[in-house]
Amino acid sequence: xxKKLLLGSVLAASSILTxxxxxxxxxxxxxxxxxxxxxxxxxxxxxxxxxxxDLTATQQxxxxxxMQDKRSDRTANRAKHQAERAQMGQQIKALTNxxxxxxxxLNRLADQxxxxxxxxxxxxxxxxxAIAQVLTAEQRAKMEQMKSEKQExxxxxxxxxxxxxxxxxxx
Length: 171
Description:
Blueprint lengths: L1 H26 L7 H6 L16 H20 L1 H20 L5 H32 L2 H30 L5
């Protein structure tokens, strides 16, 4: 019974770390715009929610600089992050294939992963803060409203999906 619980814990931990590593791979992939993307991006105009905020040319330039800075950081650290992910994968594989689970090593890996997630969170909030400082109070309020609407739409979609599955249980 204990071995099954232990094996289940190892599999769950390795699955979580694998998903996180895969997510990190997607988060740090090349962000250089393709020719088609550049063609669709007319005159450097803002896209997405920013396009709905009636930004001045100065604000657009400031926000683009913030985003370019972030993009440059990701590009500069890409090789380092890929090496870290590969090493993490090897460590997970070694833990998974070991005859007994080294819980100390597993805890170290979990701590490393948590530290990376914390750093990504901090960087994301710092970027959001920097952008918010460029916006006027009205623009920040409008941005917040758009975020709330998007979250509500996501919640509704999630509820619709959950409700959809229950319709077929009686069959």
